[in-house]
Fold this sequence. Notes:
The structure holds two protein chains of two kinds. Chain A has ten helices and no strands.
Amino acid sequence: MKADNVIRPVGPQTVNLRAIRAIYGFEMARTGRTLFQSIVSPVVSTSLYFIVFGAAIGTRIQEIEGVSYGAFIVPGLIMLMILTQSTMNASFGIYFPKFTGTIFEILSAPVSFMEIVIGYVGAAATKSIILGLIILATAWLFVPLRIDHPGFMLLFMVLTAITFSLLGFIIGIWADGFEQLQLIPLLVITPLTFLGGTFYSIDVLPPVWQTVALFNPIVYLVSGFRWSFYSIADVSVGISLAMTFAFLALCLVTVWWIFKTGYRLKK
Amino acid sequence: MAPIISISSLTKTYASGFQALKRIDLAIDKGEIFALLGPNGAGKTTLISIVCGIVTPSTGTVTVGGHDILNDYRAARSLIGLVPQELHTDAFESVWATVSFSRGLFGLPTDPDHIEQVLKSLSLWDKKDSKIMTLSGGMKRRVLIAKALAHEPQVLFLDEPTAGVDVELRKDMWNVVRALRASGVTIILTTHYIEEAEEMADRIGVINKGEIILTERKAELMQKLGKKALTLQLHRELAAIPEDLARHKLTLAPSGKELIYTYDTQGERTGITALLDDLARNNIRFRDLQTTQSSLEDIFVGLVRKDR
């Protein structure tokens, strides 16, 4: 047993990088163990969308602003996967230690709340981004793609993955049971994504519903992301980007509040 | 010497309104083994959880190694290793991975030699690649101890470490505890096995209903509160205690074959000589005699009952 009598110089000003790395590594290892469920199943289900909407039905649908329907839905589908996977993965990542009780170690470790968030959310976002890129590569096999603004494409992808991983983190802390864990992704995020222009341009909606759609935050994400591919958008890119940052800020404030108050973490 | 843990005016009232800690003042010296005894629900785990950062205190201050647990939590927590009461372990990770994780979490660089040493001292070495879920309860307890020791803590909290643990592990564990103490680590343990506190602890604190009702060096506590009982096995049964012996406050065992005399070891006179003289005068003869000292358990039960 080692035990020096020197008090270790760990001040409040330092960042516990090793802890971030430990949490991040732990979460990525969890993904590695569930590789099939994590990567293969989203890829298979997305491929089914391509086959059904792209090849089977898509050939009967007109081009949208010069883009074939099969190609038009690719950005939306990638967004759909990033949104749901980020939320589910991050919520499970923090909920499970709460459920098994192993969270005691995180709470008693010399880590700041920001470090905990970076570890968990960073891992969930990384996984979503990898998944998004894999789906993009898969899409290339089915439909002709072009990416006009690759830098913005990556920016939207990264921002969305981080934002919804934060949202998942919040859900995971809030949830009291596995049922609640599924509730928001299933009842809120998936419907909003389907109604958010994943499979269509909101221009095709009746005017009233176009206005309603503007209250759907996911419209902005999908629109901005699609713009980075084909330079076509439902709302201007500036607004899309601004809204994405706004959601990110909202999630950050909520997470900050959770740790500030110890909500559902500390008694 | 400044205490390694200093707790002053600490209170905790949970959101439900339950007052778990009423007002705790406690100082733990560096390098000692401190045993915290108390019935279920006395506040032992709450107290430990506050020091470790899992539960937020209502009022009061706690410092560890001179660092405030709230304002300077990094420095305070990096000194502490915690072995919780419940078997909170990961399921799918390997023993090696989970123990290494703990070290990283506490901000220390990887050190396979240290982890190997910890695992070997807890007889976990041959299980290092096993998934935790495949281990028995006792093995999981070892894993939790290994996790707490992975970051070389200066202070080790053991919350009910031997609850539901077999003899083998208990022996291993106390060997580890002794080795840690020898290297200067301070150990705070809660236990229901009072003989363990009696065997291991330097100092004992008794907590009941959220209050520390006593802290004392073990030896002094045993001496101060220690009563001895002298049991005399009689040759012939007695129906009742003869009147001549009434002043000795004897008890007669139901069988009538044993006389029990309780006395205070700290008293000026134990009164044994006078008793034996009186017995001889009354022609009560005995074949054997034995004395027994009250155990810590008796003391503890006595204290908690008095407090009720």
